[in-house]
Fold this protein.
Amino acid sequence: MFKILVSDPLSEVGLQKLLEATDVEVVQKTGLKEEELVQIIPEFDALLVRSQTKVTPAIIEAASRLKAIGRAGVGVDNINIQAATSKGIVVINAPDGNTISTAEHSFAMIMALARRIPNAYHSMMNGQWDRKSFVGVELNQKVLGVVGLGRIGTEVAKRAKAFNMKVVAYDPFLTEERAKKLGVTPASIKELVSQADFITTHTPLTKETKYLISTKEFALMKDGVRIINCARGGIIEEKALYEAIVSGKVAGAALDVFEVEPPMENPLLKLPKVIVTPHLGASTVEAQENVAIDVSEEILHVLREQPFKNAVNLPSIPENIIEKVEPYFALSEKLGSFIAQIAVGGLEEITVTYSGELTEIDTASLTRTVLKGALSYHLGEGVNYINAPHLAKNRGINVVEQKSTANKGFTNLIAVSLKTNQEEKTVAGTMLNGYGARIVKVDGYPVDLQPEGHLILVHHNDRPGAIGRVGTILGNNNVNIAAMQVGRRDMGGNAIMILSIDRPATPDVLDVLGELNEITSVTEIDL
Ligand SMILES: NC(=O)C1=CN([C@@H]2O[C@H](COP(=O)(O)OP(=O)(O)OC[C@H]3O[C@@H](n4cnc5c(N)ncnc54)[C@H](O)[C@@H]3O)[C@@H](O)[C@H]2O)C=CC1
Ligand SMILES: O=C(O)CCC(=O)C(=O)O
């Protein structure tokens, strides 16, 4: 039974999937302090939050069972991703469910700002009938600058086009082709801020986007420009915005988000040219249902070890690629584990070479899996698909992925080599049509064995009787040999034996084998 903690208020309809699941117990406890979360988190397999809960390193550190953190929304700035990644916890978000709501809110803010609706409302509610103070501007033919043309930015741009606005967009990932399709003009940030009548931001808050719009950018803007931020506080520097409004450069600003939330002492709230909402972009019935449904489904996938797509701390694998790489996951992990068990010394570099049909697909996920297999042997259960590359990097292990057309004999081949500070070892495996995974080469010797169970790898000199003596010692010690592979390069030269045994041999038995004259090394492998 999986235990899931829901620590922020989430849509009940959205949570239905979790509440109905027979393998899940859902505990809903909201408004907990950090210390309280630290206390209870060790009981839970997954944590589900909206934006109130700050998932700090202390909470993650205490989360001994946690496999997933789900964010019902897009921005994950309330979750310490680095701490989660180091601990191998997958962070899931719901990137699509609130796109339309946030785009509509942004557009509502653009219109409210243009027509001064909140100010007029406020005046009337105070008993005034003032028609002179609230003269607005049209959107028709005005230039809208969209900073960040992702999901939300794109929807805002489409709505602006419907209002006959001209749209210029700044986004480092915007291609000419996409811009053309959307009917927007790509621009640099300088061009955008100097051309726009309205500027709306739709990027995440990152090191690059923090204060993306500041004093320098305000100086380039047209007089009377209007600013909208429904993305994250801090993309526009509030101090610079305040000065630009007071100086008359900026005619108005509409803000849904703030550098500090709630923004109680914020001087911007004292300016009549500023209209505000309390981070309501995603606050619609539809968006809250959508994000809760999406994140609940994804959490179940993670816990049930089924494929999931919206992990923030993992590269996403497109569905057409998943189909192609999935059959190789088990083999990749076994190859990683095998090589780690046979190599002596501190790991320095792991190289994964793909051949045959694998040269044509994105194999990054398989390399992660090889790495997981290799590092798990040394670092234990804490290693998983999420933190394996991070752990390798932290330990200075170089990871190389390459494709090769050299191995023509196999329709697919994964070759793994591991360099340690003492030696270099290699192993290669393939998926044989109808026979499943096979290891086909060890240290350059051709073999053919199933990568599973207990194995003993023996390096020896190719002399008559060597194989028999190994068999006799194992038999005398009640270790049954289920299968055996021998490989050699030259008659009478170096050779290997790989024995598949029914139960692990004890260290004493391995020592006795190692003492035989012909034998140069004995390694037990568990796959
Ligand atoms: N007010 C609210 O309630 C909500 C706010 N948001 C905010 O809106 C943001 C955008 O959401 P989506 O459109 O779904 O995300 P998205 O990931 O689809 O789009 C973000 C876009 O920003 C672009 N970008 C990244 N760095 C940039 C830079 N330095 N300069 C210019 N563009 C840059 C990316 O290329 C991407 O196209 C989220 O990160 C979140 O912070 C999202 C939902 C609700
Ligand atoms: O949960 C919310 O209402 C905040 C939404 C948001 O900012 C996001 O999804 O990034």
Remarks:
- The chain has four domains: 2-96+286-303, 99-276, 317-446, 453-527.
- The domain at 2-96+286-303 is CATH 3.40.50.720 (Rossmann fold).
- The first strand starts at residue 2 and ends at 6.
